[in-house]
Amino acid sequence: MELNAQIAVTVLMGVFLVAVATFLTRIENWRSYTPVGGGGSFIEESGYIDEEKPAGIIRWLTTVDHKDIGILYGLYGIIAFAVGGLMVTLMRFDLVTSSSLLGTSTYNALLTSHGITMLFLFGTPIIAAFANYLVPLIIGADDMAFPRINAIAFWLLPPAALLIWAGFFAKPLGLFGPAQTAWTMYTPLSLGAVGPSADAVGGAGVDLMLLGLHLSGVAATMGAINFIATIFTHRGEEVSWANLDIFSWTILTQSGLILFAFPLLGSALLMLLADRNFGTAFFLTDGGNILWQHLFWFFGHPEVYILVLPMMGIVSYVLPRFAGRKLFGFKFVVYSTLAIGVLSFGVWAHHMFATGIDPRVRASFMAVSMAIAIPSAVKTFNWITTLWNGRVRLTTPMLFCIGFISNFIIGGVTGVFLASIPIDLVLHDTYYVVGHFHYVVMGAIAFAGFAGIYYWFPLVTNRMYQASLGKAHFWLTMVGSNITFLAMILLGYGGMPRRYATYLPQFATLHQVATLGAFLLLIGQIIWLYNMVSSWFEGKRVESGDPWDLRQDNVRTVEWQWFEQKLDTQIATDGGDEEVATDGGKPADEAEAVAEERDDD
Amino acid sequence: MDETPGLSEQYRKASPWPLFIALGVPISEIGLVFNVLPIAVGGLLLFCGCLAGMLQEAGYIDAPWRALGVMALLLGGLGGAILYVNPQVGADMTMRAYAVLASAAVIIAGVVAGTLLVPKRQQPA
Ligand code: HEM
Ligand SMILES: [Cu+2]
């Protein structure tokens, strides 16, 4: 039997490899019929050459174009957001009553997957979506520095998602369950094989999740190297460090953080995997549990800034467009970005105040954690001052930017309280912490993501979304977030511990309020999804190269110049394969701190 | 073969290799962690083969054979390292080491066959 199974797997693997090889030869053949036009290489293309792309699904499987990859990242992030959102919807409905309807192990599995899905499969990829599509356009690069690496980084993600969710697929087949370690994967719980908790947290499901996380970390690191190389070496001639735009600055900083944080997570995950499967003892010895927490949070705290910095960049980029002014104190926004980047590596132990580490160490981490609030506040004041006396237009992206600021203030201030050791010792591991970071991750990060999606929707699709649905989406999301997460902060004050499927009866009302808020959020996101899909296919076509009327305030940014050129080309050649007809860019459109479009020499 | 790639303007907008390189990583990892030899070998072959293909397509190398040889050496080293630590850890790693070594052997066989049998002009695009 064993042998037969081995043979069967071997044959399957062989067939698979042969199929891949055949497929590859056919693709290569197809390509050798299409001249690549490398010959007269001094003739610069001034548009993107579409005819080199194969048609249909193969195009999407083989693309190395930064814009296509950006769209793929975007779709991926949105699917992950939907999955993670549905998971938490189930959890919130479980929490309507003080006993668990789903059962505690299912609840724990959903809890684990929700957190990991939102952070690693939605947060990081949705940022990569914006960065891939926009950074090369904004800084005047033809593409990313390493387009193929870019594609590899993306394609690592779908397998990563399948591995992370594997337990949910395997359970109905009676194989193994999903991981129940929570996203922090603390040992000894996550070690499984030793101790009384052996495999109570998911068995092979945990191993697969660790592999999936590792993959997503490799992908993020490859992407980060690519962005650093692109921003350093592929800027257009007019783009200097002095006038590099704010979004690219945040992406650059974020990539630096990824470069130091994710490889460390990867190593720690492999050590855990080795402890579970290969008989090593990294985390089994004395101090192993504290070691895991140090390694995890040395990654984990920078990770939260990996997520929030680029989103701050989007807000800094979009908000001034609808305030009719330049970003106030541009330089200081850049400096505070860099300051946060550096400081974020010095605060990790604020997640470990309650572990009994040396009080002197604790105090220094408290000091740095308080200090990091300063650059965050600098940014906040800069945004508010940008609005001051501006010609504010409350479009949907603008609403989300303002919502971002509002929620980020609450998230940040609750964070400062947690950074204070005596307060943290009371509030640690309560819903207060959950409320704190959801104000930031949902209230700020997701809000900025929506602002970006609405703002650049016409750029990507050539169409406009339906404004009234956008407004409905904003208000449901804003009200829903604040109801849900304020209720959590109050629950935390009351002493409700986090990560439980059941609770004492006195917490019922606030839990029900939180679920009500989550329900509003759900409705809002359904509206948003409908708006996006229907507008993508049949929204009103954008005729002008300036769909946001940014020129009247003289705040148009360079990517819309590219967009205008794209529209002109489409009209001129009707999607043909001609050389793009251009005459030099229009001199009128100078935006702050941005470059001209890619020049044709 | 006539072009001089390496500069960003000359990149083609499509490449079949990244997808399969990305598939090779999880397949080989699953094979190695769960100790399923054929899957580990298949994943490693997929990964190394496609990596060589992509290097060639990008113009970093003219023929895949030497790059494959280097990868085989690296795999050989890894397999040896696993065999070396095997007695020191609590789990039996022999089959995992063999999986890595087997992939190295298959790749070396491919390199030998490729250099001897494929005429220079007909090296894959
Ligand atoms: C203003 C600066 C901030 C400070 C001083 C701060 C402080 C803290 C502290 C002390 C904790 C640990 C609470 C505990 O477990 O007892 C914490 C938890 C957390 N914070 Fe913040 N925070 C800040 C900003 C942020 C931002 C910007 C994000 C997200 C982008 C974030 C995400 C998180 C997350 C995810 C956790 C919970 C981790 C977990 O235990 O699962 N925080 N924060
Ligand atoms: Cu932190």
From TrEMBL, chain B:
Record's keyword annotation contains Transmembrane helix: yes
Transmembrane feature ranges: 32-55, 67-85, 97-118
Record's keyword terms, sorted: Membrane, Transmembrane, Transmembrane helix
Superkingdom of origin organism: Archaea
Name of the molecule in the record: Cox cluster protein
Species per Swiss-Prot/TrEMBL record: Halonotius aquaticus
